[in-house]
Amino acid sequence: SVADGFSKQLNAQPRAWIFTSATLAVKSDFSHYIAQMGLHAAETGFWESPFDYGNQALLYAPPNMPDPNNSAYAAAVAAVSLPVIQASLGRAFVLCTSLKAMREVHALLKDAFATAGMEYPLLMQGESTRTELLDRFRTHGNAVLVGSQSFWEGVDVRGEALSVVIIDKLPFAPPDDPVLSARIDKMNQEGKNAFMEYQLPYSVITLKQGAGRLIRDETDRGVLVICDPRLITKPYGKRIWQSLPPFRRTKELADVEAFFTFD
């Protein structure tokens, strides 16, 4: 973590520090962020969003998805995405947790669009700069953009141009990351639970950032699709559910279609 280095900044000169974000907490608990930053004496506060999430948004967890490690998983994500995109008339971000998955899902959607006669502009991260892609996305008004890490945060598309955010997997840090591996080993040696105290909070915060692309003001409406079955099947899935905004939730595609019928 950056705690050691940042503590020097904290102690260098007396001053007030304020950290504010919609995604610092995990289920209104700031322990992960405090530990990473070394802010052990910090006072914390948590306020609910002014958005009416229950009416503005729907969270769709599609049933019968394969394990995320299954070789057919990208195809399943594309298959689940297609009817949602049809219902929303485009206007979607498809956010992937890796560049490989992004390219696979983009290629599958491109073929599916052609087969189904869907003429929504299909954009992909890397085809142009992020700024140019976002400008094109907003201008089209019915585009579908497939992206990876660059579009999970720091992107603000308000209004009807973005009405669906589809997330392929829970964004756990890659297990082959040597920094992550060293951190896990250190935490385990200290008798800590690296998964619950670091890996899961990291995933929750990143997921909240991706989900946060959907509702940007009081008049936005949209559907968040989380394809990863672990959200439902794993014991830690409940903690993730509880950390997300209080969208209405469903496992039924018909509810998604009904949501856009009245859009």
Salient structural properties:
7 strands, 263 residues, globular, seven-stranded parallel beta sheet
Describe, in short, the structure shown.
By secondary structure, the chain is of the alpha/beta class.
Explain what you see.
The structure is a single chain. The protein folds into two domains: 3-37, no CATH class; 53-261, 3-Layer(aba) Sandwich (Rossmann fold). It has 263 residues and is an alpha/beta fold. Strands 3-4-2-5-6-1-7 form a seven-stranded parallel sheet, with helices on both faces. Helix 6 (130-140) links the parallel strand 3 and strand 4 (144-147). The longest helix is centred in the middle third of the chain and has 18 residues, at 99-116. It is built from eleven helices and seven strands. The mean pLDDT is 89.
Task: Record the SSE blueprint.
Elements: H1 3-12, H2 31-37, H3 53-56, E1 57-60, H4 73-88, E2 92-95, H5 99-116, E3 122-124, H6 130-140, E4 144-147, E5 164-167, H7 178-189, H8 194-211, E6 222-226, H9 230-233, H10 237-243, E7 248-250, H11 253-261
Parallel strand pairs: 1-6, 1-7, 2-4, 2-5, 3-4, 5-6
